[in-house]
Design a protein that fits this description.
This protein is an alpha+beta fold and about 850 residues long. The protein starts with 19 loop residues before the first strand and ends in an 8-residue tail after the last strand. InterPro entries: Biofilm_reg_signaling (IPR052155), EAL_dom (IPR001633), EAL_sf (IPR035919), GGDEF_dom (IPR000160), MHYT_dom (IPR005330), Nucleotide_cyclase (IPR029787), PAS (IPR000014), PAS-assoc_C (IPR000700).
């Protein structure tokens, strides 16, 4: 017999047995189908709630078995409900095997329902597989039937059963999604879906049963049948059905209970979450970081809560700070960290609000300021908590620092200004009462700074001031404060335990500063060499005010400048009288200009044949009461007061007139006159015109006028010096470099500056004669050799002995000036015609 025997044209359907179904079994089978579908629907929810793949696969399998058994039970209840006039038995093996297609169909159904596939193509494909599985189960179960009648299938109804199985399966899979927009109640939607799925399974079965016909068999007496009887199968099927009903009911009840509890918990959790989210949103809107900090009984700090602003303020995620609060605390500098702990302890002890400002460093060199404020609360077991917020006050702190800087610091060098220095001095003076320390003060004034500003502009002057400040800072010792008092005036303040160390500290620091400030400066548009004068004052008396100390230091530094600069002086009471005398001298000098008190002396210059070749004009002041005032006294006064300008003009005018007088005599017309020119005089805008005007007015040969320039003058502005020199040389006026060899870079400038003569400084001539400075003569010989190669004249000044003159001659120097040949004398006492 074939697996699927169909009715052929040779069969007479009128001969077939007339079967019928028992209604109560049909109703039971339909109920079983719906119940199985209902159980499967809830299994998909259980699968979605599974927390792991293993759990989901377990519930998928158990749901497939439950649904498959339910479908199988519905099938056999429906089969045994069908009655014909011959007994029917069932083969146990095939009956059992028919369960497998039902379970597989259930597996496909659950997979589709679990994934909530909304694609029609996926739904149709799943319906085909589900319908095929149910059909396979049905016809496998039908094949398990054994009876003396001949069982066959009507082809049209057979294929109709397959179509019904597939269509109803597709509808069953799609109905849940189709009903969702129209039915909001979830359980009702599930129940309707289960009914449709149950009807789908039942409709296929009963359509297939309608396709089955039984014919009497003429060989019935020879057919032996065996297996389970209908009554046995009904009993076993009912047992299975009851098992499924019980299991399904238990599952549904448990699921409903679980869902109810979960829903209640979820609703409460959502409520809590909403409140928490609202709190977080409020905290995030607060201008800063909201936090709760607690300290346990052992003093250990931890965060109970911290808002998301921690990322912005500290660069630390809230969860990281909650787990390990040190990630925030370690951003605070160690010293400030200790201060924070102390302030927290004080707040906890007194139960007072905590307010504190502290810096944090998120990156090296990058600092921001934060302000913390919180209310404190003492809890159980010695626990203390603070609830508050932290805000960024960097802008506020920056503004405060800007105000502080503008009020107490110099905008150019960023050093403390006069106000800050006075405050610091007052604090140190007040501290002498309890510490028995003295106060030391250095006043540093840059020599000739005003001329740099006037000649080269304020930009170069500012650069020089900044460079000088850095050099001074390089000499400072511990606990020393450097400030800028005025344009070119710096102040150093420190304290010292006793006057026993005063001299050592003063000497060491001043020598360092003088050396640092005398080195050449490489400014943006200028190479400048300068010096400084320093006034030093000390006080161990708290009665002396800060202003008084500054005044004393100012007197000392001005005295140092009057003595030529590039030195330091300590204040003493005698300086007061000296300053008064200098002021009186300045007043007298001002009145002496244009009178016979100022006279021009001349020191003659000779060659190796003792012939007069020139003279240096030297200014002398014959005071009516003081007598002859040393140039070393009144020339610095003239430089500082500006009187050097009219004095210099008078010197050039007088020298030109003397040259005009000498040109009238044959024995003196070859003698030139050298005139010293000060830097302040040389850098005047009208200096060239003034000299040329005097030469023209006197009617002299310009070559007979020699202008002497010092190296310090040349170094102030090389470009301007060269310009001025060539402007005068174009008219025949000659130049001599005075005091050659005492500076730092004279040799390099000889090749670039248009000098006609070089004067060897008298200091070399004097030292070279002594045994301990015999090496100085090598310098003298080097200068002579270089000037000859540069085709310049060389003259040695300060020649006082015949031995010096003979040695100079042996070295190649043939021009001399000194007391050996001529002392500075007025024109009337020179051995020359007037």
């Amino acid at each position: 017999m074939s697996v699927l025997p169909f009715v052929t044209e040779f069969h007479d359907l009128s001969l077939a047995y007339q079967g019928h179904h028992k209604p109560w079994l049909v109703a039971l089978s339909l109920f079983m189908a719906i119940l199985a579908a209902f159980a499967s629907m809830f299994h998909t929810d259980i699968m979605r709630a599974a927390k792991s793949t293993a759990q989901r696969n377990f519930w998928h399998l158990s749901g497939s078995v439950a649904m498959g058994l339910g479908i199988w039970a519905m099938h056999f209840i429906g089969m045994v409900s069908y009655r014909i006039d011959v007994p029917i038995f069932y083969t146990p093996t095939l009956t059992a095997i028919s369960v497998i297609p039902a379970v597989l169909a259930a597996w496909v159904t659950l997979a589709i329902l679990y994934r909530r596939i909304n694609s029609w193509w996926s739904t149709i494909g799943g319906g085909v597989l589900m319908g095929a599985g149910i059909g396979t189960m049905h016809y496998t179960g039908m094949a398990a039937m054994e009876t003396v009648a001949e069982m066959r299938y009507v082809p049209n109804w057979f294929f109709a059963s397959i179509v019904v199985a597939i269509v109803m399966a597709v509808l069953a899979l799609a109905i849940r999604s189709v009903l969702k927009p129209y039915i909001q109640h979830r359980r009702l939607r599930i129940s309707l879906s289960a009914v449709v799925m149950g009807l789908a399974v039942a409709s296929m079965h009963y359509t297939a049963m309608h396709a089955t016909v039984f014919f009497p068999n003429t060989n019935a007496s020879s057919i032996a049948v065996s297996g389970a009887s209908s009554s046995d199968l009904v009993m076993s099927t009912l047992i299975v059905a009851m098992f499924i009903v019980v299991i399904s009911t238990v599952v549904v009840v448990l699921i409903n209970k679980q869902k109810s509890l979960e829903q209640t918990a979820e609703q409460r959790g959502q409520k809590v979450q909403e409140l928490t989210d609202r709190l977080h949103r409020i905290a995030d809107r607060v201008p800063g970081m909201v936090y709760q900090l607690s300290r346990d009984e052992h003093g250990v700090l931890s965060f109970n809560y911290i808002s998301s602003a921690s990322k912005q303020l500290f660069g630390v995620a809230p969860e990281d700070a909650l787990e390990n609060p040190s990630v925030i605390l370690q951003l605070v500098p160690a010293q400030q960290r200790l201060a924070i702990f102390e302030s927290l302890n004080k707040s906890a002890f007194n139960l007072t609000p905590w307010k504190y400002e502290f810096p944090v460093e998120l990156e090296p060199g990058s600092r921001k300021w934060l302000a913390a404020t919180a209310q404190v609360q003492r809890e159980q077991d010695g626990v203390v908590s603070w609830s508050g917020f932290i805000s960024d006050v960097t802008d506020k702190k920056t503004n405060e620092e800007t105000i502080q800087r503008l009020a107490f610091y110099d905008s150019l060098t960023h050093l403390p200004n006069r106000r800050m220095i006075v405050r610091e001095l007052n604090e140190r003076i007040a501290g002498t009462l309890v510490s028995a320390q003295g106060v030391l003060l250095w006043n540093i004034n840059l020599d000739n700074f005003k001329r740099i500003n006037d000649v080269h502009g304020q930009e170069q002057g500012d650069e020089l001031l900044k460079a000088a400040a850095k050099r001074i800072q390089g000499c400072l010792m511990n606990d020393m404060l450097l400030g800028r008092l005025t344009a070119d005036e710096f102040i150093i303040v420190t304290s010292i335990p006793s006057n026993q160390q005063e001299d050592e500290v003063a000497e060491s620091l001043t020598q360092c500063i003088l050396g640092a400030l005398s080195a050449p400066y490489k400014l943006p548009k200028l190479r400048q060499q300068g010096t400084a004068s320093i006034g030093f004052v000390s006080s161990y008396d708290n009665e002396v005010s800060a202003e008084e100390l500054l005044r004393r230091s100012d007197l000392a530094v001005h005295q140092a400048k009057r003595q030529g600069g590039n030195k330091w002086l300590k204040y003493h009471e005698g300086i007061e009288q000296e300053v008064s005398e200098l002021f009186a001298l300045e007043s007298d000098l001002r009145e002496a200009i244009g009178t016979e008190e100022l006279q021009l002396y001349y020191q003659l210059q000779v060659n190796d044949k003792h012939e007069y070749i020139g003279a240096e004009a030297l200014t002398r002041w014959i005071h009516p009461e003081r007598g002859l005032v040393s140039p070393g006294v009144f020339i610095p006064i003239a430089e500082e007061s500006g009187l050097i300008i009219p004095i210099g003009e008078w010197v050039i005018r007088t020298a030109c007139l003397q040259l005009a007088a000498w040109e009238k005599h044959e024995e003196t017309k070859h003698i030139s006159i050298s005139v010293n020119v000060s830097a302040r005089q040389f850098y005047q805008d009208n200096f060239v015109d003034l000299v040329l005007a005097e030469v023209e007015q006197a009617g002299i040969n310009p070559k007979m006028l020699m202008l002497e320039l010092t190296e310090s003058l040349v170094l102030e502005d090389m470009e301007l010096v060269v310009e001025q020199m060539y402007a005068l040389k174009k008219h025949g006026i000659r130049f001599s470099m005075d005091d050659f060899g005492t500076g730092y870079s004279s040799l390099s400038y000889l090749s670039t500056l248009p000098f006609d003569e070089v004067k060897i400084d008298q200091a070399f001539i004097r030292r070279a004669a002594s045994p301990e400075h015999v090496k100085d003569w090598s310098i003298v010989e080097a200068i002579i050799g270089i000037t000859k190669k540069l085709h310049m004249d060389v003259i040695a000044e300060g020649v006082e002995t015949t031995a010096q003159q003979e040695r100079l001659l042996a070295s190649g120097c043939t021009r001399y000036q000194g007391y050996l040949f001529s002392k500075p004398s007025p024109i009337s006492k020179l051995p020359l015609p007037r």
